[in-house]
Structure formats: structure tokens, C-alpha cells
Design brief:
345 residues, alpha/beta, five-stranded mixed sheet, binds 5'-O-[(R)-(carboxyoxy)(hydroxy)phosphoryl]adenosine
Length: 345
């Protein structure tokens, strides 16, 4: 059913695809009345990464309190919520299931529409929340722990063809490479923000790590060779008892990642002719990437939209935003909605 007037539409968003238990209330798609996130970082860091089974158990213990907190903070009763939007994948399937079961139970008990949201559509929608002037068409660069994709965004309804992946990673995601390099440098988990901070004191030109697929015509990425190159460099230096300048390693690795991201983004802008560019996903919180994309945008005459860091990493406001546009387009789901580890856009 089409709803012409969306004034005052309230969506409860729920996100549990990885290690953040999150709930939010969003009005009219773009105004977050609350955005509550319980991070499990402290639980997983002793293991050096997210342990899926532990993540599911923590979601289960936390989710009801987080949903209550999101409603309380927003000052709205669950009765006044128009629809419940929830991440249906991709993600750790046991983790996704906890959010999904919670959303389904609420939708059933309260007789509210259920809207399943693709996690990456959510990340892309994060850019809309702080920029009321951003509407499709635009190009999105999605860089997270699980994805590195250039997406042609033509609409927000969730219908097939509204978002098209122009290129993606053939192996590791950018965030995954950050996390692995951080681990070898002994920086701990999650690695991205730590490499970001360490790189600030290093020389990005110190070590010439290979930029994979820089010169080919595709819009695809590959980061596993770069990751192996960094690991080999560190091992060689350590075996030779050479003093390792960790800040230089971090800065040079980061420069290689950003060179490839910037170059492929330029190609995609030229190919599509888009005049608007949105950054999305956890790695979009990276200070050096944000600075580089600002200069790409200036040089190409494109407007750049980057969410503030809390909206770049996993959160439920972005899921509620994406869910809002699906809901107003009439794309709701039945209670048979399933959780998916992988899911095409
Ligand atoms: O989007 P996100 O929160 O979760 C996924 O959907 O994957 O992204 C998490 C990823 C992790 O790999 C994390 O290390 C990375 O984003 N990340 C960063 C920064 N903040 C988070 N990478 C580089 N620099 C950062 N400042
Ligand atoms: Zn994510």
C-alpha cells in the first residue's frame, strides 16, 4: 500500500548482525529520536575477533533492554510505532536471528508491519540521516568489516534494481584487512580505529605496498594480497631483528588501501556520471579516508556525504531509515522472514 503522506511515521529499527546490539526510533526516515547501541567489543577482544556463538548469546541477553531503552529515550510508546524494521542479513546468521526473532515477536504481538532490511542498504541510508538534501541518484562507497562495494543508488524502496553493485571485493573486505594488520601489529580488536590512530604518526610513503587491481578496468577490489604483503614485511623485519617502525607500517598500509578506494571511486563516478557520492560502513569512520574522499570530491566536482562516525559503524537508526523507505513503498514482510548469512543487494 502506498502512503502518500509520511508525516510522523515512526519506525523502530533493530540491528544485531555482528557484535553490536542496537535499537533506534526514527521519525519520517531521517530523524533519529533515539539510537541505542550496546557494543560487545570487551567480550570479544580477548579472542582477537568476534566469536559468533558468544555474539548470539549476548544479543539474546541484551536485546529486550536495548529496545526498551530506544523507546524510552525517544519518548514514544510501542503502540505508536508504525512498523518494525530489522536487519535480515547479511551477517552472522545466529546473531541476525536474535534481532529477527525479537522483531517478529513484537510485530506479531502488536499487529505491526514487519520490514526486513538488507544490512548494506542500511549502511547506505546512514548518509541520508544527517543530510536531508541527499536523495538518489548517487554513488555509494560501502567499506565495512564484511563489504567493500561501489553501489549505484537509484532509489530507496528496496525493490530490485534500485541499488546495483558496480564492483566489490574479490577476497577480503577493507575493514577485514585493517583488523588483520592490527592483529599482527599487536594492536588488538577492533583494529580499524587503532590503525587509524597509529598511522597519524607514520609516513604513508615509507613502504611501497602493492596496490592490487589499480590499473584494470573493473570496479572490483582485492585486499588479501596487500594484507599478506604487510604480514611478510613485518615478519622479514622481525627475523632480521630490524627495528619495526609500526607507525610507518600502519600509514603505508592505509595509504595503499585508500589509493585503491579513491581510484576505483573516481572510475565509478566517471562511468555513472553521478554528481553525489556517499561513504558508508565502519571504515568510512577512518580519518585519512574521509580526508582523501573530500579531495576526490573537490577535484571531480562532486558533492560528498559522509555520516558522522557513530552512524558509520553498525547502528539501528540506519536500519530504521532504510526500513522507512521500504515501508512507505509498501514493501513489508511476512512473519516467515528468514535470516541470511549472505544476501544479494
Ligand atoms: O560497518 P561495521 O561497523 O560492521 C560491519 O558491517 O562490518 O564495520 C566494522 C569495520 C571493522 O573492520 C573496523 O575495524 C572498521 O570497520 N573500522 C575502521 C575504523 N572504524 C571502524 N577502519 C578504519 N578506520 C577506522 N577509524
Ligand atoms: Zn555493518
Amino acid at each position: 500500500m502506498m502512503r502518500a503522506d509520511t508525516t510522523g511515521t515512526l519506525i523502530l529499527g533493530i540491528e544485531t548482525s555482528c557484535d553490536e546490539t542496537a535499537a533506534a526510533v526514527v521519525r519520517d526516515g531521517r530523524t533519529a529520536l533515539s539510537n541505542v547501541i550496546a557494543s560487545q567489543t570487551d567480550v570479544h577482544k580477548v579472542f582477537g575477533g568476534v566469536v559468533p556463538e558468544i555474539a548470539s548469546r549476548h544479543h539474546l541477553a541484551t536485546i529486550n533492554g536495548i529496545v526498551d531503552a530506544a523507546l524510552t529515550e525517544a519518548g514514544v510508546s510501542i503502540k505508536t510505532i508504525d512498523a518494525i524494521a530489522v536487519t535480515k542479513g547479511p551477517g552472522l546468521v545466529g546473531a541476525v536471528l536474535i534481532g529477527l526473532a525479537t522483531a517478529k515477536a513484537m510485530a506479531f504481538a502488536l499487529n505491526k508491519p514487519l520490514v526486513g532490511v538488507h544490512h548494506i542498504r542500511g549502511h547506505i541510508c546512514a548518509a541520508l540521516m544527517e543530510h536531508p538534501e541527499l536523495d538518489p541518484p548517487f554513488l555509494a562507497l560501502v567499506v565495512s568489516g564484511g563489504h567493500t562495494s561501489l553501489v549505484d543508488v537509484r532509489g530507496l524502496s528496496g525493490e530490485p534494481g534500485t541499488m546495483t553493485v558496480l564492483g566489490g571485493t574479490r577476497d577480503d573486505a577493507a575493514g577485514e584487512a585493517y583488523d588483520k594488520v592490527a592483529r599482527v601489529l599487536g594492536l588488538g580488536y577492533p583494529g580499524g580505529p587503532k590503525v587509524d590512530a597509529l598511522a597519524k604518526g607514520g609516513d604513508p610513503a615509507a613502504i611501497a605496498f602493492k596496490r592490487a587491481m589499480l590499473d584494470d578496468d573493473s570496479l572490483d577490489f582485492s585486499f588479501s594480497g596487500l594484507k599478506t604483503g604487510v604480514l611478510n614485511y613485518i615478519n622479514t623485519e622481525r627475523q632480521a631483528n630490524a627495528p619495526l617502525n609500526e607507525a610507518d607500517v600502519a600509514a603505508s598500509f592505509q595509504e595503499a588501501v585508500i589509493d585503491v578506494l579513491a581510484s576505483k571511486t573516481r572510475k565509478a563516478l566517471a562511468l555513472t556520471g553521478h554528481k553525489k557520492l556517499a561513504l558508508a560502513g565502519g571504515v568510512a569512520a577512518n580519518t585519512a579516508l574521509r580526508a582523501r574522499m573530500k579531495s576526490v570530491a573537490e577535484q571531480t566536482g562532486v558533492r560528498l556525504f559522509i555520516p558522522t562516525p557513530p552512524l558509520c559503524t553498525d547502528n539501528a537508526a540506519m536500519i530504521a531509515c532504510a526500513g522507512h523507505y521500504q515501508y512507505v513503498a509498501g514493501l513489508t514482510d511476512s512473519l516467515a522472514l528468514d535470516a541470511h548469512a549472505t544476501l544479494p543487494l
